[in-house]
Amino acid sequence: MKWLENTIEWLIFQSRWLLAPVYLGLVAALALLSFKFLQELVSYAPTIITSSSDDTILAVLSLVDLVLVGNLIILVIFAGYENFVSKIETSEHSDRPSWLGTVDMSGLKFSLIASIVAISAIQLLKSFMHVEELTDRQLAWQAGIHGVFIFSGLLLALSDRLKK
């Protein structure tokens, strides 16, 4: 019966590799996001001279929003792969991020919620820049959703603090 137990445990341990294609899918999503970033940058460039400062700020905020999402994807890929699949062997590489291998699930959760709050704040700011185009109800929903993200982050921080 020990061989059966060993086989089951080996199979369970090897099942972590089923996540590898998921992380590769996130790499593909990052490539698509990079393409979208470049597409938006090229579309904003010709209009920069004639656009208002508000429109310029909105354009830059849109680019920052895409960068934050990209950072979030990278963080999930690296931390998730390292925590659940396998260590990434890049110790000799000069460009190795200093945080690689140090982000645990608690750190990943905080980074995720912080990124989500920042992305939500940018979306809310973009809405406030064109407040005349939105109804009070739409603004209230956006502000409420942003508040829920902030509250969730605070609860997550509190629960982590109580856990220690």
Break the fold down into its secondary structure elements and pairings:
Blueprint lengths: L1 H13 L5 H25 L8 H32 L20 H25 L6 H28 L1
Helix pairs in contact: 2-3, 3-4, 4-5
- What is the ordering of alpha helices and beta strands? HHHHH
Number of strands: 0
Count of individual helical segments: 5
Oligomerization status of the protein chains: single chain
Quick recap:
Helix content is 75%, strand content 0%. The chain contains five helices and no strands.
Defining key terms:
164 residues, extended, 75% helix, 5 helices, mainly alpha, 0% strand
Notes on the protein architecture:
The protein has one domain (19-163). The two termini are 40 Å apart. It has helices at 2-14, 20-44, 53-84, 105-129, 136-163. It has 164 residues and is mainly α. It contains 5 helices and no strands. Helix 2 (20-44) runs antiparallel to helix 3. It is 75% helix and 0% strand.
